[in-house]
Amino acid sequence: MGRNNHVLLNTGMGRMALIFDRHFSVDEVAKLIPWVETQLKRIRRLRTALLRGMTEPTAVTDQLIPDSFPPQLFELFNLMRSFEERDILLRDPEIGMVHFPHLLGNGEEVLLCYLQGENEPYYYHSLADRYGLRLPLPS
């Protein structure tokens, strides 16, 4: 999967080149929500454990880990990387905000916005305003 440079490119023909290599349909995102929910819960749990200095069982116990880093840090890194590997943008794990590149019916490239606890991605952000206004998906 290609990596995204997040730079708008003017093609000189009045259209902007696509930024993202992969675009998710609403149905694809809906199917990924259980996975996203599980990962967000694990990230929060690990983050809390790291902040409190607690020890938790980890899935990385068979790897060589430097003594100066707790194993939870590596597990947290791997969980966050798992979003990137799927071309999913993990924006804020604390509030559970995740973005999925998407193409609207008119060809506009946007980010479907999912907040933890929602059943489906009903909202999107334009690329120019990806952290601001959540707009409802057109019917």
Q: How would you characterize this protein structure?
A:
There is one protein chain. It contains two helices and five strands; from the N terminus they run ααβββββ. Strands 1-2-3-4-5 form a five-stranded antiparallel sheet. The chain starts with 25 loop residues before the first helix and ends with a strand. Helices cover 30% and strands 17% of the residues. It has helices at residues 26-52, 71-85; strands at 89-92, 97-103, 109-115, 123-126, 135-136. α1 (26-52) runs antiparallel to α2. It is α+β, with helices and mostly antiparallel strands and 139 residues long. It has one domain (26-136). Mean pLDDT is 81; it is low at 1-12.
Give a concise summary.
The chain has 139 residues and is an alpha+beta fold.
Considering the chains and any ligands shown, give keywords for the structure.
139 residues, alpha+beta, five-stranded antiparallel sheet, 2 helices, 5 strands, 30% helix, elongated
Structural class: alpha+beta
Please count the helical segments. Answer: 2
H and E string: HHEEEEE
Strand content: 15-25%
What is the total tally of β strands?
A: 5
- Which sequence of strands runs across the widest sheet? 1-2-3-4-5
Alpha-carbon distance between the two ends: 30 Å
Compute the CA-based radius of gyration.
Answer: 17 Å
- Low-pLDDT segments: 1-12
Described by its quaternary structure, the protein is single chain
Largest sheet: 5 strands, antiparallel
Give the overall average pLDDT.
81
Helix content range of the residues, please?
Answer: 25-40%
Domain module tally? 1
